[in-house]
Amino acid sequence: MKINSPNKAKIIVELTRDDMLELDITYEDMDYSNIETRRVIWTLLDKARLELGRDIDPSGKLTIETIPLEKGGCVIFFTVNDKSLNLIKTIPAKEEVFEFDSIDNVIDLLSSLKDYSFSGDLYSDNRGNFRLITPFDERLHTRIKISEYSHPCREGKLAAEITKEHWHLKSSNFGIVTAD
Fold this sequence. Notes:
The protein has 180 residues and is α+β, with helices and mostly antiparallel strands. The protein has 2 domains: 2-80, no CATH class; 95-176, 2-Layer Sandwich (Alpha-Beta Plaits), CATH 3.30.70.1950. 31% of the residues lie in helices and 31% in strands. It has helices spanning 17-23, 35-52, 103-112, 140-149, 157-166; strands spanning 2-7, 10-15, 62-68, 74-80, 95-100, 118-124, 130-135, 151-152, 168-176. Strands 8-5-7-6-9 form a 5-stranded antiparallel β-sheet, sandwiched between helices.
């Protein structure tokens, strides 16, 4: 279990599959109307309080977001709904994140998909890497082509949010849009 707090209004708890087994809960069973889910939430908030030396005031409004991880764990975001902090973000339902090792790979992708329509937001870090966040595309050909020049970020929604927060947006609606 990893607990961190990037700011005073947010606590992030990452649970492994083993942590979930120990807490006797699965991602699929999480429902705040369920007493067992509430038990787990209060247990996690108590552990966070002990580890961080402070807690989120549970008497106010609290947003709890849970995102599954591939190996059976999950990440839980606890965020105080303080309008003055403006920290609440929505996570789009289906996004894919692809990471490129160089701008050359991004350009090669554009060349290879010139007959197909796709778009997304292109981000870069300070080390010459690029990430493309695209809506999930049902067309297998497009996804395979993008994967030829990049590698998918397996964290899914979490990777998209991390990219949006810590990487630099280079192009919004990046891609090729063809007339149908």
